[in-house]
Design brief:
It contains twelve helices and 13 strands. The chain is an alpha/beta fold and about 325 residues long. It binds NADP nicotinamide-adenine-dinucleotide phosphate. NADP nicotinamide-adenine-dinucleotide phosphate binds next to helix 12.
């Protein structure tokens, strides 16, 4: 409560922004130390093979960022950029050869693949022990059983962020909006594993706001710019915004960005777009206790967690880390 100049009392609310830049750097530094130690103690240098098919501009940027992160932490990397008319058989052949190579620890196939190539066939062809994205059914199954090996990077980053900001998970009501294989489902599994009471919402959920507004931790991964507004958020809740959407017009920007509006309009006029998550930041800031910004939030952790998974693969493949099977 604050007393204004004219003597009125007013409640001021401030939402804490969970900025991830420092955390992403911290994780990369930890990985870099592990990579250096692996070399000193075992003469092992982890290697990530990134595979990309076609000319999708966003995919090219994502792969470039991953390769750059490898360089930062000392992981060796290979970039297999294949033409858009690569066939399923050719791609399967490449995966098989990467599976067989002793010097390759992690295999990453950048999604989406061209429509003609069935993604499930490719994901299932990757050796589970090299599946650093955690999408192979064996790794999905292990996660569902509460015995995770490789966990998808974005959800793993969410848990890391909650932990490093000391946000309790055990016992709280957590709601995940979105049930994709890469974010929603694994995020819900991880929260469950950490003893949250978990609800999953999706496009068929009746009265979304009634469900989400019960959540102490609300994770949103739907790909709908600013859909989650004040009515969806429990006062004081922690809101994790996974969405990454482009806003190109001023009218939409005005509905989304409060104090940030002028800066965002400037970015749109310079670059043609600005990024917004699936949460309306202006409305969330009226009620949320904490929220991740977009950009500058969850997105930064995804690549850092990929680096960590690659080192884990290098250690597990050489028996330097307890594997899931050795825990039985
Ligand atoms: P996706 O595969 O398209 O899945 C979207 C999910 O949202 C689906 O489960 C869908 O429900 C649900 N949904 C859609 N509209 C809804 C609505 N109106 N109400 C409730 N649920 C709704 O998306 P994704 O791959 O999980 O990605 C989600 C967002 O996260 C995107 O903006 C993406 O760009 C972003 N992303 C960010 C990172 C990162 O590193 N920061 C990584 C991955 C994704 P149904 O299942 O019923 O269709």
């Amino acid at each position: 409560m604050q007393i204004t100049k004219d003597g009125r009392s007013e409640t001021t609310h401030r939402t804490e922004l969970l900025e991830a830049t420092a955390i992403a750097d911290e994780i990369k530094q930890e990985v870099a130390r592990e990579v250096a130690q692996l070399w000193l103690q075992h003469e092992v240098k982890p290697c990530l093979a990134a595979v990309r098919v076609g000319d999708d501009a966003a995919s090219a940027v994502y792969v470039r960022n991953k390769i750059r992160a490898c360089e930062e932490v000392g992981i060796r990397s290979e970039h297999h950029a294949l033409s858009a008319n690569t066939t399923l058989i050719e791609l399967l052949d490449l995966i098989t050869s990467l599976n067989e190579r002793g010097d390759v620890d992690g295999i990453l196939v950048q999604l989406p693949l061209p429509e003609e190539i069935e993604e499930a066939r490719i994901i299932e062809a990757i050796a589970p022990e090299k599946d650093v994205d955690g999408f192979h059914p064996v790794n999905v199954g292990r996660l569902a059983m509460g015995r995770p090996a490789f966990v998808p990077c974005t959800p793993a980053g969410i848990i890391e962020l909650l932990d490093r900001f000391n946000i309790p998970i055990s016992g709280v009501n957590a709601c995940v909006v979105g049930r994709s294989q890469i974010v929603g489902r694994p995020a819900a599994q991880l929260l469950l594993q950490r003893d949250a009471t978990v609800t999953i919402c999706h496009s068929r959920t009746r009265d979304l706001a009634a469900v989400t507004s019960e959540a102490d931790i609300l994770v949103v991964a739907i790909g709908r710019p600013g859909l989650i507004g004040r009515e969806h958020i429990k006062p004081g809740a922690t809101v994790i915004d996974v969405g990454m959407n482009k806003v190109t017009d001023e009218a939409t920007a005005r509905k989304l960005f409060g104090a940030d509006l002028e800066k965002r309009l400037e970015i749109i006029s310079k670059r043609g777009y600005t990024l917004v998550g699936d949460v309306n930041p202006a409305e969330a800031d009226e009620v949320a206790g904490k929220r991740t910004p977009v950009p500058g939030g969850v997105g930064l952790l995804t690549v850092a967690m990929l680096m960590r998974n690659t080192v884990k693969a290098a250690r597990m493949r050489r028996g330097l880390e307890r594997t899931v099977n050795s825990e039985q």
